[in-house]
């Protein structure tokens, strides 16, 4: 695909870029003084890096390569891989961002299971943690595989060695700087990633002859569904809505960024701007796949590698190098964010409550240790199942089925008891797992029975049980958490700085 000279240039460029990423993380190492610094970036990140960090996390290596490959094969209907994510994200921003931020401020929340345990009691933490770990370990391992695929294609390195290299690199980078380094690095990588995707689309569009050519070619091969937004089944659209879409409500990395924002305004504005940028780049990724197939008529037996073929056939050497760096930036910016989300849950939802850790410096050490633990889990998963996309989808379904209904119900309805919420999480989680193991009976995706059983469970359990901690539930209710939390944030940060000086 690339001749040896180009590969040598790419190798040097990627090596230097990797060193720069590690140097950037080392820069933040001494500035990480507390576990809050490490896990929620000291709750002090401004707008610009926050925007690009959200964008960088939303579009990973699997999205860039996978969505483009799916669009190459399946046509314009693959836009439904993108639309649900941003439709649901808009709903989440409008209705839930402020109360999530307010609750995080009041109770110093670090993870989504923190919220679940606060609302429904400590018994609810474990099933919530299981939902989080499966989803985030699988997607972290998926990024190891993305790096391994890149190294295999470019330099002939075998998959196992590539996965191990990806694991070591991403683990070291994340271990050193925590979320603060991740977010500031993503401000650079998100810029490279976004510009790379835009440049690639503009190049492919201009060389393909435009939309009319693409449409005519689809008609010529008697496949008009390839240029129809609704050219896929309704069932497929619903699956995307209730997995990739609904998942946005309970994405722990999104919650952590809301808590990491410097002010309420930063949290809201950065999410809206990131949504716009992410939607545009997501659409461009899908359109690039469609135009590559029907406009440029590029032929491949491996649609997942269409990105590399498009780049190699349409661009000069300097641009090829830039596009490859953009791909690496896409992989890394997504991987380290999910890495931190999963590791935060290990530290905060296993080590802290079960080992009764109260000293913040010890908690900081355990937070770094948790990165290594998650790394090992993700490494084992990626080596055992080198095709992690199905596991990622299953993990997303588990996360959505287990936590979506309890989260929304717990925030909106004071009558929902602690028992009802806990049972609902277990019911949704176990139903999804059993349905998947059973081979998806009747061809029904596991997210549908999972959500149905979770919803029925919380309704029935609410009717037969009573909430216990009514004062806390009232304080955590939706209506009591819609105001500004900036003053409370400033007091919290000042208190943290004072305690550090006294140590």
Automatic annotation (TrEMBL):
Q: Which InterPro entries match?
A: Na/Glc_symporter_sf, Na/solute_symporter, Sodium:Solute_Symporter
Keyword tags = Membrane, Transmembrane, Transmembrane helix, Transport
- Matching CDD domains, A to Z? SLC5sbd
One Pfam family it belongs to = SSF
Q: Name one GO molecular function term.
A: transmembrane transporter activity
Where, if anywhere, are coiled coils annotated?
A: none
Q: Say where the protein is mainly found.
A: membrane
Q: Does the keyword Cell inner membrane apply?
A: no
Gene3D superfamilies under this entry? Sodium/glucose cotransporter
Q: Could you list the residue ranges that cross the membrane?
A: 6-29, 50-69, 75-97, 128-151, 157-176, 188-209, 229-250, 271-296, 316-346, 366-385, 391-413, 420-438, 444-464
What PANTHER family has UniProt attached to this entry? SODIUM-SOLUTE SYMPORTER-RELATED, SODIUM/PROLINE SYMPORTER-RELATED
> What family does the Swiss-Prot or TrEMBL record give for this protein?
Belongs to the sodium:solute symporter (SSF) (TC 2.A.21) family.
Q: What is the recorded name of this protein?
A: Sodium:solute symporter family protein
